[in-house]
Each structure stands twice: as structure tokens, then as C-alpha cells.
Design brief:
The chain has 438 residues and is of the alpha+beta class. The protein has helices at 2-14, 19-45, 49-60, 71-79, 92-104, 116-121, 153-156, 178-186, 254-267, 285-292, 340-350, 424-428, and strands at residues 112-114, 134-136, 142-144, 164-168, 171-172, 193-200, 211-218, 228-235, 241-247, 272-276, 300-306, 311-315, 329-333, 355-358, 366-372, 378-387, 403-404. Helix 3 packs antiparallel against helix 4 (71-79), helix 3 (49-60) packs parallel to helix 5 and helix 10 packs parallel to helix 11. The relative contact order is 0.10.
């Protein structure tokens, strides 16, 4: 009994009921509630499409100063504009508008938000054709890098962001890049399906563990417009037979269709070629590198530099050329030739394989990546710049032609038949004004 009496004062001292103590405890509880509310708000903000856009720009944007701004402060400023309902939901349309405004701060006309229809349309540049973005993670393992396009084969197949792609058509992806996978699939361009071995890792799975299955998906490139037109335009008295090829854009069909064009023209006797890239705005960067491999055997096609000034060298394939080095090749370009058109023209020009004719090209030396967002929309972000094999940075400058000339106006939209202006022997003397590394 005495122990209980002695213990009583100590217990009472823990729950003092004086007015000052009550106020102190009330303030403490209010502070704790405020901190809980703040933490809850932060968790909600960090799970929105707005934060998804901010994170991608923070990690991959080519200018790591983000247009000389405190990008963390930008995050706080723009996240504070988004309101939440009591259940934690938010207005997706409002979040998209805020995201668009935030991306504009980068001051880059090429970085932009795409709504769902626009994101679906840009899939014509999907070289694999299943509606998913594949990229290496920090351990250089190939993963699904963004949510698949809604309604795409990848979406129907249950692929999720973060899933590991451990094999493609039975070939393991270990030690390979996403571009290697594209090259593998390009070896059989008419294949209508692709099978990927996918591993989904749970929170309790160890490295290498997870739910493993094969997913066979129909390639959806068949609806893409053929960007290549061609014909024999001349049979000259000196024996020159001119094969003319027009490429309107670099979409997922350009490489196999260009291969068909070259083979058909060769079968018709063509022994000199004009490749018309006028008014070609570009398209898939990798397509330009692959096409360069039809003319260059194991040569540097371009050098890519990311935001950390890390340089990546892209080489053409080995043993895949379709024209002998002695076959004359002239590229037509103008101010509408941009992006992937300039990658191709720069590669063939600097490696002494083609002579460039016409006027200065557009001058787009930046590379964009397309990311799928969790709400089914997309984000186009400038992630790198490139230089020609000779080390030329063409951004804002363009590629200067070897032969300045006013080229013939097409008689039919997209197809010019007058190649008589081209002096192939004289053009050969203009080749290789710069020295490129191998």
C-alpha cells in the first residue's frame, strides 16, 4: 500500500493538469498533426504525374542547370499549385496544365507534354512496334522504362514500368543495349510478332527472382505509312543509270523499305544514286544510324553527348552494306532537312561516302527521348546532343552542302524526277572535305 502511495506523485507528475501544461500539450499535438498533414501532402505530391515529369527532367534533361534555375525550388513552387481532394485524388487535367507550364521553364521548344492521342500518334517511330519504351537501369539491365501506351500490345500483355526484359525472341539481353535489341528485330523486319521474356519483381524478391513469363506481342508497324519512294530517273549516254530515292521521314518502316528500294534499283541496273532528304523533318534517331549502315561498314555514324558530358559513340553495323563504296551517292538536302536527316547526311558526308548537294540543312543537333506517363500521356524531353563523325556540332548551324545548288522542284509532291543537274563525276571530286575518325 505504501508503494502505491509513493508511486502516486510520480504518476501524477506525468499528467499535470495545470493550465500551462494543458496549453503546452495541446500545442504539441497540433504540431504533430501539422507534421502528419505535411508528410501526407508531400507523399501525395510525390505520386502525381507532375512529379513524374519533374523527375524525368531532373534526371535526363540535356542541360543540367535546367535553364539556370533551381530545379528543386521549381518543384516546390509548381507542386504547391496542385490541390488535392480529401481522398487524396487530384484533377488530372489541372496537373497536366501545371506540368506544361513547368516544362516551358526549360526554354526548350523541343521538350513538351503530349496528350494521349498525340502520344499514340508518335508511336509510328516505335522501331519495335509494341508500344513500350525499353531502357537500361542503373545496373545496365533492360527494363520497361515507362508505362506502355494504353491499348498497345505491351499494355495488353501486362507489361509494367520496371519489369525486366531478360530475353527477346529467345536471345538474352544481358550485356546488350536497347539499340542492340532494335538491331536484332530489324534483322527480320517482316516479322509480325516478337516474344519477350519478362520478369516482374515483387517487393520481397531477391535480385534475379520474380514472376517470369514469355509475352508474345503483335508488332504494330504495319499501319505506318511507307516513307520511301523510288524510281530510275535517267539512263545517260555515258552508261550512268540513276536511281532516285526519296525518304519523307524516319519512321519504323524506313530501313526495310529503303533496303527494298536499293535492291530493286540495283536489279534495274542503277549504278549511281540520289537520296532526296529535302523537307524530311527527321524521326527516330536509331533509324538514321541503321540506314547509315547500308552504306558504311563498321564506321562511326555519330557521337552523342549527354547532360553529364558523357560521350557515346554510335557505329554502323558490320557486313550489312548494300552498295559498294565505288558506287556514287549524292544527298539532296534543304532547310527542311532536320534531325535524323542530318544524322544520316552528316555520317555519310564526314565518312566520305556521299556528296551533299543543295542548301544548308535545318540545324537540329539535339536528341529527344519520348517517355510514357502513368496517366497514358507522354513527355518528349531533350536528353542529348550529337556531333557528326568529324566533330561538327550542327545545332543552329546545319550541314553545309559540298555543292550549293538550286534543286529541281518536284513535279509530283514527294517525288522529283529530274536528276539531270547531278554531275556524278564532278561530285566525286567534292567528297571528303573533312577527316572523320573510324
Amino acid at each position: 500500500m505504501q508503494q502505491l502511495v509513493q508511486a502516486q506523485p510520480a504518476f501524477a507528475s506525468d499528467i499535470e493538469t495545470s493550465p500551462n501544461s494543458l496549453i503546452k500539450n495541446l500545442n504539441r499535438d497540433i504540431a504533430l498533426d501539422a507534421n502528419d498533414d505535411k508528410d501526407l501532402l508531400l507523399r501525395r505530391q510525390r505520386s502525381t504525374v507532375l512529379d513524374e515529369v519533374w523527375t524525368l527532367a531532373n534526371k535526363y534533361y540535356v542541360d543540367n542547370t535546367h535553364n539556370s534555375q533551381d530545379w528543386n525550388q521549381v518543384r516546390e513552387n509548381y507542386e504547391s499549385r496542385l490541390s488535392f481532394n480529401k481522398d487524396g485524388s487530384y484533377d488530372d487535367e489541372e496537373a497536366m496544365k501545371i506540368s506544361i507550364a513547368m516544362v516551358k521553364l526549360l526554354g526548350d521548344k523541343y521538350s513538351r507534354i503530349l496528350d494521349q492521342p498525340a502520344y499514340a500518334r508518335i508511336q509510328k517511330f516505335d522501331l519495335i512496334g509494341v508500344g513500350a519504351t525499353f531502357m537500361p537501369n542503373a545496373d545496365k539491365k533492360i527494363i520497361v522504362g515507362a508505362p506502355p501506351v494504353q491499348g498497345s500490345e505491351a499494355d495488353k500483355g501486362g507489361l509494367k514500368i520496371g519489369d525486366f526484359i531478360v530475353a527477346v525472341n529467345g536471345v538474352e539481353t544481358q550485356g546488350r543495349t536497347a539499340f542492340d535489341i532494335i538491331d536484332q528485330i530489324a534483322e527480320n523486319p517482316n516479322a509480325q510478332v516478337v516474344t519477350m521474356t519478362v520478369v516482374t519483381q515483387g517487393s520481397d524478391d531477391m535480385i534475379g527472382e520474380g514472376y517470369r513469363r514469355d509475352v508474345t506481342m503483335k508488332r504494330q508497324t504495319m499501319e505506318v505509312k511507307n516513307p520511301v519512294t523510288y524510281k530510275i530517273t535517267e539512263k545517260r549516254n555515258d552508261g550512268t543509270i540513276v536511281g532516285y530515292i526519296r525518304i519523307s521521314e524516319f519512321n519504323s518502316l524506313v530501313k526495310p523499305k529503303l533496303e527494298d528500294a536499293i535492291k530493286s534499283l540495283k536489279a534495274s541496273g542503277a549504278n549511281a544514286f540520289v537520296m532526296d532528304l529535302r523537307q524530311n523533318p527527321g524521326g527516330a534517331f536509331q533509324s538514321a544510324v541503321e540506314i547509315a549502315g547500308l552504306f558504311l561498314d563498321d564506321k562511326i555514324a555519330t557521337n552523342v553527348i549527354d547532360s553529364n558530358q558523357v560521350e557515346m559513340v554510335f557505329r554502323t553495323t558490320k557486313g550489312k552494306t548494300l552498295l559498294e563504296p565505288s558506287v556514287p551517292l549524292v544527298i539532296w538536302q534543304d532547310g527542311g532537312s532536320a534531325s535524323a536527316s542530318e544524322v544520316l547526311a552528316g555520317a555519310l558526308h564526314d565518312q566520305c561516302r556521299a556528296v551533299v548537294m543543295g542548301s544548308n540543312s535545318f540545324g537540329k543537333g539535339l536528341i529527344q527521348a519520348v517517355y510514357g506517363l502513368k496517366n497514358g500521356s507522354g513527355f518528349v524531353l531533350t536528353v542529348a546532343k550529337y556531333q557528326t563523325p568529324g566533330g561538327t556540332d550542327i545545332q543552329g548551324i546545319g550541314i553545309t552542302p559540298d555543292i550549293e545548288a538550286k534543286l529541281p522542284t518536284p513535279l509530283i509532291i514527294g517525288l522529283s524526277t529530274d536528276t539531270s543537274i547531278v554531275d556524278f563525276k564532278g561530285a566525286a571530286a567534292k567528297a571528303c572535305p573533312v577527316t572523320a575518325s573510324d
